[in-house]
Design brief:
The complex is a heterodimer of chains A (409) and B (279).
Chain A lengths: L1 H9 L2 H27 L1 H4 L10 H13 L2 H11 L9 H22 L8 H4 L6 H27 L3 H9 L1 H21 L17 H27 L6 H28 L3 H4 L4 H21 L1 H4 L2 H31 L7 H24 L11 H6 L2 H6 L7 H7 L1
Helix pairs in contact in A: 2-17, 4-6, 4-16, 4-17, 5-6, 5-10, 5-11, 6-8, 6-17, 8-9, 8-10, 10-11, 11-12, 11-16, 12-14, 12-16, 14-16
Chain B lengths: L5 E6 L8 H9 L17 E5 L5 E5 L7 H5 L5 E3 L5 E3 L9 H5 L6 E2 L8 E2 L5 H5 L5 H5 L5 E5 H14 L19 E4 L19 H8 L2 H62 L1
Parallel strand pairs in B: 1-9
Antiparallel strand pairs in B: 1-8, 2-3, 4-5, 6-7
The chains are: A mainly alpha (409), B alpha+beta (279).
């Protein structure tokens, strides 16, 4: 307790206010949770018989799973393809993915009418159901992420025997994680194959699973970039600029393939004219594409991608573009076909905000107590010199400016 | 009755709008007595509506031959019985509402106001059929606008009525081919699209759209697993070999250095000894 008080006193006023906001959101979220579980879905959501899946499915589940794709893309690069130079960011990324999937599962509890039956897919099988497959993949992948994360805890308590065992199994574990991710990332798209008459032509395509998979491996590196920036700020540590710069290339290639397949698919299905119909759906589609194109152009310009602020903005755009896509598939694209009108209630958004806040607080807390981040040097002189002023400012929230330290010494 | 696939034939031109089917349905299924009169919701399994032309028509679960709701349910809480009804097991249900999303006719309804909700929809009085009785609505209908029987037989009756009385009926049997055929067949004097029935649901059973992808999963897992495992093995093996190679080079270099040191030491010793002899 005394330590906590000391910790609190040592915080800057900026950080104190951040903690206060987080606490307020968590208190609100707990209240909303009581409301939801005691009075039912109808009391807190704007869901209806015409529109049974809303914000929680679109954001918490479909958005959440996509944004947690950083875990499997990075593990694929490092352990399977041997890009060991990215090893330094594997741990924070795996932790983020683990917490992300945990939040997806908790978010699902809020959305399920009979939440206490969530274990039913374990024993009541229907292999024809995409939802059944997603349920199994998410359960197994959560286990895999736990096994990938648990060495951090074992190291802290110096338990060598299980550590050695896990190290020996690391390749099979990573392999299982990658396969499970490929399956359920694409399956979230397959969920909508059954509604050809409800989902708008701009999004309904037989290759929806492929598009979901391609966008997941695009947004994976983007999320790693965004997360690295935020941990650099929160934990006042250096930024792996070289690694992130490299990841941006993977992101760019992924995005090029994704957008190319998406556009080609519009031509193949002969719905290209609907893109420029300028009705509600076409406008949502154009915004989605515009976000991705802006990101692609930014990454293509050397000056922009070499600057941390530019890199962060581009990665942030990719993240929002993919989340926008998930909303379009589950929300905007479903309105006309179902004849429904839907806009989330403040409680729905509030609970999602609560879950995200819990995730961030958990990440910060775990990182404080466990060896998540490797010791990292400050940016080298060369890296710092080529950095644009905005980037320096972005990373400037440190106890000491490396430039000044160097001048002083 | 055997397990022959049964169906219900609704002849809207015969319906007098008495509402006996609604009331008997509610009584038999224990539904509340305050249902909405103009639409389906969680309080009713069927509803009789009146079109502007004066013709009555009904809405209820279509009991598809290959139902989307049954195929999507992750815990098999929905089931198509051999006799025709699509039944629901509330104790299995987890409340994901995928059935509501998937249903092309938007039939399943939800108890949104309850803290422990279940899905509500017509189950074609499954237990009555098992006991050899007709579903409540068919049993009670006073004008034979709702007839229960083997699907083949009802389809033949429907076709005969349409061909014999072209003035009375539109030339269409709704449910014959919709989404691969349904266990509810409908005849009408007013075009079905005017009654609000979806005409664009297609003749393909929807679960096939999903199954074409789902059936590829074992292949993806096996091929993907072998491929990625192989790639990982090759890359890591090459890196190991590279490292081994570099280690070997290092060892040789070290040996060479040691030898050179030794040689120098020996040379020095020789020089010293030679110098000693001369000196």
């Amino acid at each position: 307790m005394a330590e906590l008080i000391l910790y609190w006193k040592g915080l800057s006023s900026h950080r104190k206010s951040l903690w206060l906001i987080a606490s307020a959101i968590i208190v609100m979220g707990l209240g909303l949770s009581v409301w939801r579980f005691f009075f039912g879905l109808g009391a807190v959501t704007n869901l209806s018989d015409e529109f049974p899946w809303g914000f929680w499915i679109g954001f918490d589940v479909m958005g959440g799973v996509a944004l947690a794709a950083g875990g499997f893309t990075l593990c694929l690069l490092v352990y399977i393809f041997g890009y060991h130079q990215y090893h330094s960011i594997v741990r924070p990324t795996v932790l983020t993915a683990f917490l992300g999937y945990l939040l997806v599962a908790i978010g699902l509890l809020y959305d399920l009418g009979k939440f206490y039956n969530i274990w039913h897919p374990l024993v009541m099988w229907n292999p024809h159901s995409v939802m059944f497959e997603v349920a199994w993949c998410v359960m197994l992948y959560l286990t895999v992420l736990f096994l990938e994360f648990v060495p951090i805890v074992l190291e802290k308590f110096n338990l060598q025997t299980p550590l050695k065992l896990l190290r020996r199994l690391s390749i099979p574990i990573v392999l299982a994680g990658v396969l499970l991710s490929v399956l359920h990332q694409s399956s979230l798209g397959s969920l909508f194959l059954i509604v050809p008459n409800k989902l708008h032509n701009l999004w309904y395509t037989p290759i929806l699973p492929l598009l979901f998979f391609l966008s997941a491996i695009t947004v994976g590196p983007a999320m790693v970039i965004v997360e690295s920036f935020f941990s650099a700020r929160i934990f006042r540590r250096g930024l792996e600029t070289a690694v992130l710069y490299d990841l941006a290339r993977f992101m760019q290639v992924g995005m090029l393939v994704y957008v190319a397949v998406k556009i080609q698919d519009l031509f193949v299905r002969g719905v290209w004219d609907q893109v420029f119909a300028f009705d509600a759906e076409s406008i949502h589609f154009l915004i989605e594409m515009a976000i991705l194109f802006t990101a692609m152009i930014m990454i293509a310009i050397r000056k922009v991608r070499a600057c941390p602020a530019g890199l962060l903005t581009a990665a942030g755009l990719v993240v929002s573009g993919v989340v926008y896509n998930r909303f379009n598939v589950s929300w905007a694209g479903m309105l006309e076909g179902t004849g429904a009108s839907y806009f989330p209630s403040w409680q729905e958004v509030g609970i999602s905000l609560f879950l995200v806040t819990c995730g961030i607080v958990a990440f910060v807390t775990i990182s404080k107590f466990f060896p998540v981040f490797p010791e990292l040097e400050e940016p080298s002189r060369e890296e710092w010199d080529v950095m644009c002023p905005a980037g320096k400012k972005l990373l400037g929230d440190r106890e000491s400016d490396p430039e000044e330290t160097r001048k002083a010494s | 009755m055997g397990n022959e696939p049964y169906a219900i034939l609704l002849d809207f031109t015969r319906c007098i709008g008495c509402g006996a089917c609604e009331r008997e349905c509610a009584r038999v299924n224990g539904l509340p007595d305050d249902p909405p009169e103009d639409k389906l919701d969680h309080r009713n399994f069927t509803v009789v509506l009146k079109h502007d032309s004066g013709q009555y028509y009904r809405r209820m679960c279509m009991h598809c031959e290959d139902p989307a709701c049954v195929s999507v349910c992750p815990v098999a809480a929905l089931e198509k019985t051999d006799a025709g009804p699509v039944v629901y097991h509330p104790d299995k249900c987890i409340g994901c509402r995928y059935c509501m999303v998937a249903c092309p006719f938007q039939i399943p309804k939800y108890e949104w106001h309850k803290s422990i909700p279940v899905v509500r929809k017509c189950i074609m009085c499954n237990s009555r059929i098992e006991n050899g009785e007709e579903p409540a609505c068919a049993w009670v209908c006073p004008v034979d606008a709702c007839r229960f029987g083997p699907r083949e037989k009802l389809l033949a009756i429907a076709k005969r009525r349409v061909s014999q009385m072209p003035d009375r009926y539109v030339d269409y049997i709704y449910g014959e081919n919709e989404v691969g055929g349904t266990s509810i067949l409908m005849l009408s004097g007013v075009p079905f699209e005017d009654l609000g029935f979806k005409m664009d649901v297609g003749e393909q059973a929807l679960p096939r759209l999903t199954w074409t992808v789902m059936s590829k999963i074992p292949n993806v897992v096996i091929t993907g697993g072998i491929m990625l495992g192989g790639i990982s093995w090759i890359i890591n093996r090459r890196m190991d070999l590279q490292k081994e190679h570099m280690d070997e080079v290092d060892t040789l270099k070290q040996d060479k250095e040691n030898w050179e040191l030794e040689r120098e030491a020996l040379n020095k010793k020789i020089r010293d000894l030679e110098g000693g002899r001369h000196g």
